[in-house]
Amino acid sequence: MLSHVTIGTNDLKRAKAFYDRIMAVLRIPCIADEQLNGLVGYAESRQTTPQLYLMRPIDGRPAAVGNGQTFAFLAQDRATVRAFHQAALAAGGTCAGPPGLRAHYHPDYYGAYVRDPDGHKLACACHLPED
Q: Tens digit of pLDDT for each residue in 37-83?
């Protein structure tokens, strides 16, 4: 359904250091490190979608956090959700909701929420029952 998602940043070097850590947990490599051109990208490969890009805003104005938006990453198991949360905190993110069941979404929704160094809300979720 999605081709790509772009997350604005005011400090591309700091953002890349943060996302390198959390994307490593999800086993998603950096496919584009073009910091001189103002972007860094992640995906399973350059030929697959969706892709995630960190960018300095093209209009030159500061990047801003959206109210009500969350960028959610899919995890294959609950251990990955916990590892994502730990990696995000270790890389300078802040907790926006610890790992746990969120039964109000559905009975097997296991997720964790963080804010990246720019303040964007991220989630990591597993939709499968406990092993």
A: 999 999 999 999 999 999 999 999 999 998 899 999 999 999 999 99
Proportion of the chain above pLDDT 90, given as a percent: 95
Alpha-carbon distance values, 67 to 21, 35, 64, 71, 84 (Å): 25, 27, 10, 12, 23
Q: Tell me which fold the domain 4-57+69-126 belongs to.
A: 2,3-Dihydroxybiphenyl 1,2-Dioxygenase; domain 1 (3.10.180)
- In this structure, the chain runs to a length of 131
pLDDT at 131 over 80: no
Give which of 74, 80, 90, 60 is closest to 122, Cα–Cα: 74
Amino acid residing at 107: P
d(CA 53, CA 42): 6
